[in-house]
């Protein structure tokens, strides 16, 4: 699942290459992906791109008073086209959900293509479970997932005091679930929550309200440092490079059975019905293993 750093990388790429261009085509391949109907998708055609924003794990392309917002969900991705395929998009059960084409000269002199030829992107989703969501709205507050977002943990005004306030408000919640909850912290998902907790040397099942001042400070620092570093690697990369770039730099997530790069302990895994987490027993749980079952708790 793309998380804040990868989505920010996509945002930067789209902003650089689309702002100033005109939407010439918006073609829907998966009708289930479009969640709004009051403003038709075709209303975007002929409008100029004015902005590209990220809200948590949502991307939003602003076009003359309207917004095309989308969430890539677990198995979705954005593919950049230069040029856009000439083959018309047709409804199907394949991975393609949406394709947009743009013409004109982008505002940025650093754009990949500054000519008049059409460029664009496709949204695709692998697998049979389709959760990719697309919205066409006059106001981003009309997108339910954006309206319920918690604070961006990298926002300038979000300091240690504000962070501790969130922890206190959700004191009976385990850290892993808290970090992933988009209504609490916008943009952190399964992979980076594992990375953050390993950097902070905290168990994923430790309760938020049980942290000492030193532990909460370490967690806040890990959130800021890990996400900032990942964004630094993602911004400037092409969309096709972002997935591999993410995997290359992960320390514990997806590394079950491998040695922890910090202490050398074998990285362990806890599996759930539809997801998993990784952690280092040496760094995070005093050498103890977590029970590998749903609703796991630290073995005592």
From TrEMBL:
Domain of life: Bacteria
SUPFAM superfamilies registered for this protein in UniProt: Glucocorticoid receptor-like (DNA-binding domain) (SSF57716), N-terminal domain of MutM-like DNA repair proteins (SSF81624), S13-like H2TH domain (SSF46946)
Segments forming domain Formamidopyrimidine-DNA glycosylase catalytic: 2-76
Cofactor: Zn(2+)
Gene Ontology MF annotations: 8-oxo-7,8-dihydroguanine DNA N-glycosylase activity; damaged DNA binding; DNA-(apurinic or apyrimidinic site) endonuclease activity; lyase activity; zinc ion binding
Pfam family, one: Fapy_DNA_glyco
InterPro entries registered for this protein in UniProt: FPG_cat, FPG_N, H2TH_FPG, Ribosomal_uS13-like_H2TH, Znf_DNA_glyclase/AP_lyase, Znf_FPG/IleRS
PROSITE patterns: FPG_CAT, ZF_FPG_2
Single GO BP term: base-excision repair
Family membership: Belongs to the FPG family.
Name of the protein described by the UniProt record: Fpg/Nei family DNA glycosylase
Biological source species: Propioniciclava coleopterorum
């Amino acid at each position: 699942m793309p998380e804040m750093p990868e989505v920010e990388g996509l945002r930067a790429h789209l902003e650089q290459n689309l702002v100033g261009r005109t939407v010439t085509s918006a073609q829907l391949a998966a009708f289930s992906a479009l969640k709004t109907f009051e403003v038709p998708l075709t209303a975007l055609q002929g409008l100029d791109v004015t902005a590209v924003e990220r809200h948590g794990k949502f991307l939003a392309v602003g076009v003359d008073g309207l917004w095309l917002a989308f969430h890539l969900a677990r198995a979705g991705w954005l593919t950049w086209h230069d040029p856009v395929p000439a083959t018309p998009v047709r409804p199907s059960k394949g991975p393609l959900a949406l394709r947009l084409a743009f013409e004109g000269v982008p505002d940025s002199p650093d754009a990949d293509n500054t000519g008049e030829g059409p460029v664009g992107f496709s949204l695709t989703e692998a697998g049979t479970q389709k959760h990719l969501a697309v919205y066409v709205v006059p106001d981003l507050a009309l997108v339910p997932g954006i309206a319920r977002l918690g604070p961006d943990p990298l926002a300038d005004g979000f300091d240690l005091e504000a962070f501790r306030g969130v922890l206190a408000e959700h004191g009976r919640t385990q850290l892993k679930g808290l970090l992933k909850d988009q209504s609490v912290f916008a943009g952190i998902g399964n992979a980076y929550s594992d990375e953050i907790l390993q950097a902070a040397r905290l168990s994923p099942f430790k309760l938020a309200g049980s942290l000492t001042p030193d532990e909460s400070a370490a967690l806040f620092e890990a959130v800021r440092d890990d996400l900032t570093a990942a964004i630094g690697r993602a911004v400037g990369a092409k969309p096709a490079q972002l997935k591999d770039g993410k995997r290359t730099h992960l320390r514990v997530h997806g590394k079950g059975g491998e040695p922890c790069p910090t202490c050398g302990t074998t990285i362990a895994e806890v599996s759930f019905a539809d997801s998993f987490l990784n952690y280092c027993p040496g760094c995070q749980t005093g050498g103890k293993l977590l029970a590998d079952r749903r609703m796991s708790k630290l073995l005592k």
